[in-house]
């Protein structure tokens, strides 16, 4: 498949998912227009209501055609023109609105036809072919006839970095460039009284090569037992939240996925060591054998471990003694411990009372030992994830982060390396949650957590420290280096835009306090106190970064330089354009308010090589934005493409006269827009 066709397929998949996301919002706009139309027919429509309905029709005219609903776009444009007439023809308006509603109702819950036509829709939703799936990307295959379910799962899987293919029959993706899915999600939408042999056979066949999860309305124990016997790894309710379904599939795959681990062995003679090396369950596992049990803590501090195996007998410390010592340690108390010995020498009950996870006979078969070791490693990883990871941000939780940061500081001290501690909080977080809701707060924390995990090094520690922020331990960095790294992150986060209840896109910032060892402190308690003090001083403002012992200095939010600035108040149309820009790896910002865009672009705090500028904007229209950019010299190194659902010669000439490069009419072809951007972006500015 060529690069162009791959991009078209990816765009088609994005359009399918975005339509599901914005379908209800579009229906709400149509309802608003219908209500105003009824008032027009009764001669009861007020000027404000008519203006609001015209604005809604304008948005629909621009976005529906982009999703492939060309008849709906034409009907919305006709409704807008009628609503803007001094005397409204109510009968013609009613006919236009009826056609508008029909164009959307005709599609139903399925995705609309895409103007890209990348391939045959499957299950009502267009999805990327296997050729478009990135190398190393996991693939989940959904067997369902429910297009809405497929789209919901696709959206959540995409957010988790997973590709989704789908079909109405149980066949897995195949063909040239195809890849066997990691997991298969089967939608059992049958209303039959009992599970049929066809479903059980399908589960058994697919479970031989992939993890299988069944979504069903059945809740009887015998049904679940039958599905489990057939090989289903999970049986979930069909009404389960899509995000939870993807999360549960991820967790089930993580348990099954073999990964190299570190195993510390104590009190092992030559024979037991040889047996253990033969029993290792995964290639690449490290077996660290220590003849002196007193080396245990140093080994755990330096090397880490996923499992401790101890011989029952040892001098002077037995396996039971070692187990009790591990269970009493603040950092390592959850570490799985397996004791091996002669059952007659160390009774099973004594080992279990000490907190051992398993006890094996040293003379038992190697295959059994392999199975037990693999089980303890899998369970240990699952327990650690559930106990130590904050489920919202995927960073360490507070208790785990405290242990990890203390360990990192002691390791840095022992190796005579510096270490910095940065404490971060989202600015005005409580106010954001009060005004925008808890969900918006979760979005900010999740995004900031993802950025921290992506930008920090493997040896660094990232943890959820408070309800509104994080702690970051930066190994090998002094205050200045940590300040530089946090400053880069702060700038990139400040440039990102988030939705708000007002309908406008908003930017958010965070504030940071930093202290370092050995310059500022040598113990974790002191380091935390100094970083916290710096953070409190920094929180007198916004977007601040403060070093221990220094006064607050605001990080300037200037000179944000991106490839494309999109100025568009229609969320559904903007989402489509943003997905397309992301496919081409363009950097971009979006403004949904004309006055805000004029202030940023005219004031030169934001520069885009290309500005996609809608004409119908709140606060200040596109012509006003263009005038302000021209007045302040912001057009010297920027090209502007005007976007509007209404295209007239006078409007086009006015835009070009104010300095726009060109004019495009909505609904527009996304591939054409991308081609125009490619040409405009690399064309020299006169």
Short descriptors:
686 residues; alpha/beta; Four Helix Bundle (Hemerythrin (Met), subunit A); Rossmann fold; 5 domains; 6-stranded mixed beta sheet; 5-stranded parallel beta sheet; 23 strands; 47% helix
Explained architecture:
By secondary structure, the protein is an alpha/beta fold. It has 23 helices and 23 strands. The strands form five sheets. The protein has a six-stranded mixed sheet, with helices on both faces. α8 packs antiparallel against α13. Residues about 115-135 and about 550-560 have low confidence and may be disordered.
Give the SSE layout:
Blueprint: H1 3-41, H2 47-63, H3 70-83, H4 90-105, E1 139-143, H5 147-159, E2 163-167, E3 183-188, H6 197-207, E4 211-216, H7 221-230, E5 234-237, H8 242-256, E6 262-266, H9 270-279, E7 286-290, H10 296-303, E8 307-311, H11 319-327, E9 337-341, H12 348-353, E10 358-361, H13 366-388, H14 398-414, E11 419-426, H15 429-436, H16 438-455, E12 461-466, E13 469-475, H17 479-495, E14 498-499, E15 505-506, E16 510-517, H18 524-538, E17 544-547, E18 553-554, E19 560-567, H19 571-583, E20 588-591, H20 594-602, E21 606-614, H21 622-631, E22 639-644, H22 649-657, E23 662-665, H23 670-682
Parallel strand pairs: 1-2, 1-3, 3-4, 4-5, 6-7, 6-8, 8-9, 9-10, 16-17, 19-20, 19-21, 21-22, 22-23
Antiparallel strand pairs: 11-13, 11-16, 12-13, 14-15, 17-18
Helix pairs in contact: 1-2, 1-4, 1-5, 1-19, 2-3, 3-4, 5-8, 6-7, 8-13, 9-13, 15-16, 20-21
């Amino acid at each position: 498949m060529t690069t162009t066709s791959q991009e078209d397929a990816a765009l088609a998949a994005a359009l399918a998912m975005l339509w599901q996301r914005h379908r209800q919002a579009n229906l709400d706009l149509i309802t608003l227009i219908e209500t105003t139309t009824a008032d027009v027919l009764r001669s009861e429509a007020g000027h404000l209501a008519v203006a609001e309905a015209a604005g809604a029709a304008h948005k629909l005219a621009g976005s529906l055609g982009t999703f492939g609903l060309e008849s709906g776009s034409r009907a919305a444009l006709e409704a807008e023109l009628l609503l803007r007439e001094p005397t409204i023809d109510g009968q013609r308006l009613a006919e236009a609105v009826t056609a508008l509603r029909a164009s959307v109702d005709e599609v139903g819950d399925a995705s609309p036809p895409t103007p890209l036509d990348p391939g045959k829709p499957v299950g009502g939703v267009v999805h990327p072919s296997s050729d478009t799936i990135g190398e190393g990307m996991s693939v989940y295959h959904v067997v369902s006839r429910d297009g809405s379910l497929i789209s919901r799962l696709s959206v959540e899987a995409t957010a988790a970095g997973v590709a989704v293919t789908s079909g109405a029959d149980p066949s897995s993706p195949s063909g040239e460039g195809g890849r066997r899915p990691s997991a298969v999600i089967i939608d059992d939408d049958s209303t039959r009284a009992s599970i049929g042999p066809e479903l059980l056979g399908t589960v058994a066949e697919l479970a031989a090569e992939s993890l299988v999860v069944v979504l069903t309305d059945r809740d009887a124990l015998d049904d679940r037992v039958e599905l489990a016997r057939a090989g289903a790894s999970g049986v979930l309710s069909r009404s389960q939240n899509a995000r939870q379904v993807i999360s549960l599939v991820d967790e089930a795959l993580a348990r099954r996925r073999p990964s190299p681990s570190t195993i510390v062995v104590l009190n092992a003679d030559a024979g037991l060591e040889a047996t253990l090396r033969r029993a290792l369950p995964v290639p690449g596992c490290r077996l660290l054998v220590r003849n002196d049990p007193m080396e245990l803590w140093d080994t755990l501090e330096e090397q880490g471990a996923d499992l401790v195996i101890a011989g029952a007998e040892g001098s002077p410390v037995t396996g039971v003694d070692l187990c009790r010592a591990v269970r009493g340690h603040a950092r390592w108390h959850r570490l799985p411990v397996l004791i091996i010995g002669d059952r007659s020498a160390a009774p099973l009950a004594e080992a279990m009372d000490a907190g051992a996870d398993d006890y094996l006979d040293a003379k038992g078969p190697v295959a059994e030992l392999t199975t037990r070791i693999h089980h303890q490693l899998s369970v240990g990883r699952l327990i650690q994830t559930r106990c130590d990871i904050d489920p919202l941000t995927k960073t360490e939780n507070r208790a785990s982060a405290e242990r990890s940061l203390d360990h990192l500081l002691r390791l840095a001290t022992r190796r005579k390396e510096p270490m910095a501690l940065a404490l971060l909080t989202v600015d005005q977080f409580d106010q954001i949650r009060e005004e925008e809701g808890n969900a918006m707060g979760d979005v900010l924390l999740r995004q900031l957590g993802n950025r921290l995990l992506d930008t920090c090094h493997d040896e660094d520690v990232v943890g959820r420290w408070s309800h509104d922020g994080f702690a970051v331990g930066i190994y090998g960095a002094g205050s200045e280096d940590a300040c530089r790294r946090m400053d880069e992150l702060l700038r990139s986060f400040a440039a990102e835009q988030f939705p708000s209840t007002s309908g406008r896109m908003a930017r958010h910032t965070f504030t940071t306090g930093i202290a370092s060892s050995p310059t500022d402190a040598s113990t974790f308690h002191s380091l935390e106190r100094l970083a916290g003090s710096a953070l409190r001083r920094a929180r007198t403002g916004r977007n601040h970064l403060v070093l221990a012992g220094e006064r607050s200095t605001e990080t300037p939010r200037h000179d944000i330089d991106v490839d494309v600035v999109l100025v568009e108040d229609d969320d559904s149309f903007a989402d489509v354009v943003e997905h397309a820009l992301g496919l081409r790896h363009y950097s971009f910002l979006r403004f949904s308010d004309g006055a805000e865009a004029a202030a940023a672009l005219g004031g030169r705090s934001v520069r885009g090589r290309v500005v996609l500028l809608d004409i119908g904007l709140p606060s200040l229209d596109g012509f006003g934005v263009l005038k302000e950019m021209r007045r302040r010299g912001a057009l010297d190194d920027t090209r502007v493409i005007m976007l509007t659902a209404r295209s007239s010669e006078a409007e086009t000439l006015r835009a070009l006269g104010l300095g726009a490069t060109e004019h495009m009419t909505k609904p527009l072809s996304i591939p054409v827009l991308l081609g125009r951007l490619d040409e405009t972006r690399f064309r020299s500015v006169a």
